[in-house]
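Retry 2 of 3 after timeout on previous attempt. Resubmitting structure tokens to design endpoint.
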């Protein structure tokens, strides 16, 4: 049920975890917790005639065991109910709310859960049973106990596939029975109903005894107090509403907040006695009496879904095998039910916490989806309601299930955080909230609040690959690539923010500040559109960016129409104008073609009856059209086989995008000192910016390029008579060659202009002012790490196997694959291009050395799963470099003799040498360090006491230590020797 889980963390909400949240100002006034002075005293209840009695304690003992748990009273309410004043009227039927919460003075203190009661009179008035959805989540985190219980903010606690409860008045009318029907086994086959019920049971969880009011107060409906259906909430809370396993939470409960709304209620409870207390928020929502007609999920159109097995025999559909018509596996997409919504409109309420200046962008971001609904003749199906709008509801409260809200920050009181509330019977989305207050949004918006700050700090956001390496989460050559990709994707909030900051810093050079505000606003708009897309039921599609061409990206009119991606449900980087070119849409201004299609699939024909004969044809047309779009799921990215399934790539030609990015980074390096450090700011901002390019952007791009080597393009296709496309094929060989060329560019940051200019080196310090330490940025070290990472990744066996798999994908006559032999030869020639018998730079030698080291570390003993042809290729290139080295050594000595000890002076003559000088007498010798002055070649200076002083067999030799051309030759020879040495152990016959 990965799909169901996924929504919980959907979008960028992921990084919400572990972010300390400031107390929000988002709640409406009435939602404030009550202050001590306003609490009505308990006697108030009694004076109003409320005296609750339990009816059920002696009734079969259903619940007495449940009630016997130890409870500890807490200090009296500061916050039992948000509106303390109106609470005591539990026996007055003055509220039309379906579930009414109240407080009773049974025993103990105000916070005792015994005192919370639930009045079901209204909801059970016209029906024998009601179905409710119950959701629970941690309201505060993060916390892990020794049993590994992980409590992170907004982590859902319930088993998300079974959150439906049924409440019924028992036959004798003395209790309310709570059922939890099995939702993953259902049947639409009348002949299987009996067997299913017998097999899985009716799901009875508990009978909760009814309480009643002693006085016969009557409310508007005239129901007498005796007739009201009121139950004690303590059982439900202690048992986690039957959806949460409370044994892991603690047995003491303290109500923090409880509030009812027209069709739902929200309760926040602390579970103890552990420290810190675990704070859990529950939401109970009345489900519609008639479930929405479900719409079948399709793997070409990416929706969140609910799945179950439909037991029994069913009529076979055209698109089914016979076996699938029995005990069918059903997957229903999640979507709003337009038919049930007022004016058939999905309303998103922009919470008052959203700063005024951003609201217009929020509105645009929300209503962008109408581009899709227009195509199914509902041009205004999605509406943003802003505070102050004519139809802004007076009773707006984001905990109220009637309002899907977009908030700026997470309010302490809010229970509903980033979670779609979905009817498990039908996939109907009842409510969905977007929280825009998580870490990445804050990270730049905090800055914005401070009136057009310098954007320098954005550049210094932690670069993810290097952080992952520092934290030991990524070890080059050891951590699987798909794990790295997964980790990067998890940190995508950081990446988005970083690319945001990057854009801002870069654009700042060219934009006046009012345009800058518009730029940042349009960035928020894109994120809102993405998140609202999740709320409409849509999943990510990381191939979305492939749907917009390079030309379109540079054409303002084109992107205005098509967006910067075919799916705003992809993560796309900013689309910056190239130097000297006109402004672009930096962020996608609208939804893409794929998004429109998905909405058509989910939301078309909602007005018509379920047995609409035209519907299947319409849906089938959309499915066929979807095959023309490129799609992939989050899991395809984690699988790590299809490189076109990637977040943060851009355009139909992602490699061209990266090639341009490399040019851009070179341009950036030239200006980075100016861009990253404002007057009077600390130079360490410069170091951090340089670090984020060399340890963040470049390795990430390199990793993505490695992902292309051996890449296979997998496509969600279905079988049709006229199907001419392939479900799998290698990425075009030429594309893979370009990827390798990008890797080779990144391996030489120096010659590619990707390093800071030497004139800026004096300012290259890195550090954190808050930590009170700075250090000098070590460029050589950063370059070496970059090389090691990329070469380890490119040469690891998994990668070679992937290239091999890809190579063998096609039939023998189809040539467009990238063979292992070509991959290895291109890499070897690319890295070794400077050769071995010419003097090269230290930098080139270092690259060669890292490469040969990694190449020779791949020992045959590790390789039982490596196919012979891959192994022989590896061996071939090792021998090849070994031969290169041998040949070079044959030639090098003839030119390198100058670097050897050379005679400097005969005995007793003067000798000039900077470096080592040694005196040889017979077969003895001794050396000393000289420094260029004329010295006499005599034993005294060498601490020898030789008497046969004028032996013709005595002389002085010099080994120069200056970096002369001659020494470079010696260095080259030593370098080649060491390469040969590294390879000797792995080249057969060269031990
Ligand atoms: C992947 O394959 C599909 C279907 O054959 C094709 O339409 C698409 O262009 C291919 N993508 C790439 C990046 O080659
Ligand atoms: C370019 C710019 O706006 N620089 C400002 C950065 O912030 C410092 C202090 O916060 C200001 O002094 C600069 O003018
Ligand atoms: Zn998302």
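Retry 2 succeeded. Sequence:
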């Amino acid at each position: 049920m990965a799909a169901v889980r996924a929504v919980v963390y959907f979008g960028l909400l992921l990084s919400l975890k572990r972010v300390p949240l400031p107390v929000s100002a988002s709640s409406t006034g009435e939602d404030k917790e009550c202050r001590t002075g306003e609490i009505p005293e308990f006697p108030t209840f009694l004076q109003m005639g409320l005296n609750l009695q339990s009816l059920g304690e002696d009734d079969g003992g259903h619940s007495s065991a449940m009630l016997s748990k130890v409870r500890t009273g807490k200090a009296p309410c500061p916050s039992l109910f948000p509106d303390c004043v109106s609470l005591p009227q539990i026996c007055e039927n003055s509220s039309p709310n379906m579930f009414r919460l109240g407080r009773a003075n049974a025993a103990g203190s105000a916070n005792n859960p015994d005192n919370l009661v639930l009045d079901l009179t209204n909801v059970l008035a016209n029906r024998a049973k009601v179905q409710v959805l119950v959701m629970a989540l941690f309201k505060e985190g993060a916390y892990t106990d020794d049993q590994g219980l992980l409590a992170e903010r907004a982590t859902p606690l319930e088993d998300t596939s079974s959150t439906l409860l049924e409440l019924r008045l028992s036959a004798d009318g003395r209790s309310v029975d709570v059922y939890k029907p099995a939702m993953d086994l259902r049947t639409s086959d009348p002949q299987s109903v009996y067997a299913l019920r017998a097999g899985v049971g009716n799901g009875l969880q508990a009978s909760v005894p009814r309480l009643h009011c002693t006085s016969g107060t009557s409310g508007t409906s005239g129901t007498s107090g005796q007739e009201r259906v009121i139950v004690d909430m303590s059982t439900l809370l202690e048992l986690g509403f039957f959806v949460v396993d409370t044994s892991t939470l603690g047995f003491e409960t303290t109500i923090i907040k409880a509030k009812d709304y027209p069709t739902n209620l929200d309760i926040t409870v602390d579970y103890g006695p552990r420290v810190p207390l675990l704070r859990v928020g529950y939401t109970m929502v009345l489900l519609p009496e008639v479930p929405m007609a479900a719409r079948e999920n399709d793997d070409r159109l990416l929706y969140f879904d609910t799945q179950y097995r439909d037991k029994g025999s069913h009529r076979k559909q055209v698109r089914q095998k016979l076996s699938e018509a029995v005990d069918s596996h059903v997957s229903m997409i999640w979507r709003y039910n337009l038919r049930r919504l007022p004016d058939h409109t999905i309303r998103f309420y922009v919470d008052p916490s959203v700063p005024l200046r951003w609201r217009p962008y929020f509105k645009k971001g929300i209503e962008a989806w109408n581009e899709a609904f227009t195509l199914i003749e509902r041009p205004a199906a999605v509406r943003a309601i802003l505070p102050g709008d004519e139809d802004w509801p007076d009773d707006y409260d984001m905990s109220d299930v009637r309002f899907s809200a977009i908030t700026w920050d997470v309010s302490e009181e809010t229970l509903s955080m980033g979670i779609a509330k979905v009817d498990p019977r039908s996939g109907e989305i009842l409510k969905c909230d977007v929280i825009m207050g998580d870490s990445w949004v804050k990270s730049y918006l905090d800055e914005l609040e401070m009136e057009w700050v310098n954007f320098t700090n954005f550049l210094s956001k932690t670069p993810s690959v290097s952080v992952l390496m520092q934290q030991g989460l990524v070890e080059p050559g050891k951590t699987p690539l798909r794990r790295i990709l997964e980790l990067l994707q998890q940190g995508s909030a950081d990446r988005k923010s970083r690319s945001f900051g990057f854009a801002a810093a870069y654009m700042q050079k060219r934009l006046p500040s009012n345009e800058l505000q518009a730029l940042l606003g349009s960035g928020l708009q894109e994120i809102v559109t993405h998140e609202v897309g999740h709320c409409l039921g849509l999943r990510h599609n990381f191939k979305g960016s492939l749907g917009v061409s390079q030309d379109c990206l540079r054409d303002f009119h084109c992107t205005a129409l098509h967006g910067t991606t075919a799916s705003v449900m992809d993560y796309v980087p900013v689309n910056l104008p190239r130097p000297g070119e006109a402004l672009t849409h930096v962020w996608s201004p609208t939804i893409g073609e794929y998004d429109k299609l998905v909405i058509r699939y989910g939301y078309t024909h909602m007005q018509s009856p379920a047995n609409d004969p035209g519907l299947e044809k319409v849906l089938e047309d959309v499915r066929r059209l979807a095959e023309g779009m490129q799609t992939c799921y989050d899991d395809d990215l984690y699988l790590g086989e299809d490189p076109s399934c990637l977040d943060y790539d851009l355009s139909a030609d992602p490699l061209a995008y990266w090639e341009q990015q490399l040019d851009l980074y070179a341009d950036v390096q030239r200006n980075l000192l100016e861009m990253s450090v404002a007057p009077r700011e600390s130079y360490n901002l410069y170091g951090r910016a340089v670090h984020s390019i060399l340890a963040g952007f470049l390795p990430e791009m390199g990793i993505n390029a490695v992902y292309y080597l051996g890449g296979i393009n997998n496509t969600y296709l279905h079988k049709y008579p006229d199907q001419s496309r392939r479900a799998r094929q290698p990425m075009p060989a030429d594309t893979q060659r370009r990827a390798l060329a990008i890797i080779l560019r990144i391996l030489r940051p120096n010659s590619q202009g990707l390093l800071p200019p030497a004139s800026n080196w004096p300012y290259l310090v890195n550090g954190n002012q808050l930590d009170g330490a700075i250090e000098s940025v070590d460029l050589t070290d950063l370059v070496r790490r970059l090389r090691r990472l990329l070469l380890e990744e490119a040469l690891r066996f998994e990668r070679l196997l992937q290239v091999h798999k890809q190579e063998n994908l096609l039939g023998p006559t189809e040539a467009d694959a990238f063979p292992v032999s070509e991959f290895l030869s291109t890499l070897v020639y690319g890295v070794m291009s400077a050769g071995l018998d010419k003097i090269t730079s230290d930098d080139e030698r270092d690259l060669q050395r890292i490469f040969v080291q990694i190449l020779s570390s791949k020992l045959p003993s590790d390789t039982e799963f490596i196919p012979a042809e891959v192994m022989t290729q590896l061996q071939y290139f090792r021998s090849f470099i070994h031969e290169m080295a041998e040949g070079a050594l044959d030639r090098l000595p003839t030119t390198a003799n100058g670097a050897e000890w050379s005679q400097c002076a005969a005995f007793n003559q003067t000798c000039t040498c900077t470096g080592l000088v040694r005196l040889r007498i017979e077969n003895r010798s001794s050396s000393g360090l000289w420094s260029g002055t004329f010295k006499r070649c005599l034993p005294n200076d060498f601490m020898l006491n030789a008497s046969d002083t004028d032996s013709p067999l005595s002389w002085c030799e010099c080994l120069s230590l200056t970096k002369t051309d001659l020494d470079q030759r010696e260095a080259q020879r030593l370098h080649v020797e060491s390469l040969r040495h590294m390879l000797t152990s792995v080249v057969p016959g060269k031990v």
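Attempt log closed. The pocket of zinc ion (ligand 3) is lined by residues 10-11, 530, 534, 540 (CB under 6 Å).
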